[in-house]
Design a protein that fits this description.
Jelly Rolls; 3 domains; six-stranded antiparallel β-sheet
């Protein structure tokens, strides 16, 4: 006979005697191993793809704070510092009255908890500072240590990487002088772990940083069952590169969609999109998931939909959803805007052994109370 016969089970008898049939049900749930569970411990094999400034909490959302401070006389914020850590091609910007070696400002970034940083990366396309330095602390902005001393910036520099070895929660970037104009513009400021760091894929960072070569999500196949209606390769939106982008064919008559194979079972709690400056998918977006092992006969569950234009967004799902495939779609009309990054965030699946121990602990507690 299928199932468990509780008539001879001494634990169940204790629970019934104690009038705790609800606890018996709970115990059975705790001891059961979750079906189709993916790896319980999962570190990024290549942590250098993880941006520590892109941390998304299941409740608070993107919980890394960034702001400009100490702006020299006459300067004003055109685009906020947060735009430089949002995972899109948008940029932070300060405007000064004129080009000058005395133009200066600082940007402060606050992480939700201390994290080990192996390198900082700056990305520019123009309007660079003359020089900069980077400071950090694990206690507060009042006790900063210089991590990168003052360094000059070249007029053709597009990506600047500084190796460090520091555990920080508070980061301050300072610059002096504007090199090419009266503007300071930085497209992206990143903090990356060292290649030897252990960083969990369940710690609130972008699941796409688990690259396909390491068994992570993607690539999106070229088969028509996985994509249609795009002007660009959908893999450009999952490559962790904010300079690439995905546009829909707004005049093609086909509503664009792509299906991303996750290549494992994950419990997803949210997603994020990073746009190109002043562009979006004007008709919104729909995200669906399925835990089916194949697309054939898959049942899809909608975890998010919106008809408003998709600008920068961190999306927390109403409840976590198990997924092996993720389907992203929009309507053809208004889909021609460029979106640079699609990100996913996953929760850990508890170890069956841990659950079993919890259940056994409950049994021991009940036996002691019964005695």
């Amino acid at each position: 006979m299928n199932g468990t016969n509780l008539s001879w089970n001494p634990v169940a008898m204790i629970l019934r005697t104690a009038g705790l049939l609800g606890a018996a049900f709970l115990l059975g749930t705790l001891v059961a191993e979750p079906a189709g569970a993916s790896p319980r411990e999962l570190d990024y094999p290549s942590p250098q793809y993880v941006d520590l400034f892109r941390h998304v909490d299941p409740v608070a959302g993107h919980d890394v704070q960034a702001q400009f401070t100490n702006i020299s006389a006459g300067g004003g914020v055109q685009y906020p510092a947060s735009w430089g850590i949002d995972g899109g091609y948008r940029h932070m910007q300060i405007n000064f009255p004129s080009q000058s070696s005395t133009n200066s400002a600082a940007m402060q970034v606050t992480l939700p908890a201390p994290a080990h940083v192996g390198s900082f990366v700056q990305r520019y396309a123009g309007h660079r500072p003359s020089e900069y330095r980077i400071l950090g602390s694990d206690t507060g902005f009042g006790s900063l240590t210089e991590l990168v001393g003052w360094k000059s910036v070249g007029v053709l520099d597009t990506t600047i990487t500084d190796a460090v070895d520091a555990t920080v929660q508070y980061v301050q970037y300072e610059f002096r002088g504007t090199l090419q104009s009266q503007y300071f513009v930085m497209q992206e400021f990143l903090a990356l772990p060292a290649t030897t760091d252990d960083v969990s894929a369940y710690a609130g960072y972008n699941l796409m940083a688990l690259r396909p070569g390491d068994g992570g999500p993607g690539p999106i196949p070229t088969d028509a069952a996985y994509r249609a209606g795009w002007s660009d390769d959908p893999n450009r939106i999952i490559d962790t590169d904010v300079t690439s982008y995905l546009r829909g064919n707004a005049t093609g008559g086909v509503d664009p969609f792509f299906i991303l194979p996750l290549n494992d079972l994950y419990t997803l709690y949210g997603a994020a999109f990073g746009p190109y400056p002043d562009q979006s998918w004007g008709s919104g977006v729909t995200i669906e998931v399925t835990d089916s092992e194949t697309l054939a006969g898959a049942t899809w569950t909608q975890v998010h939909t919106q008809s408003a234009a998709l600008n920068y967004a961190v999306i927390l799902f109403d409840e976590p959803a198990e997924a092996r495939f993720v389907r992203v779609s929009t309507t053809a009309a208004g889909s021609g805007g460029a979106v640079c990054e699609f990100q996913l965030f996953a929760l850990a699946i508890p170890e069956p052994a841990t659950l079993s121990l919890c259940g056994l602990g409950l049994v021991g507690l009940l036996l002691r109370r019964r005695g």
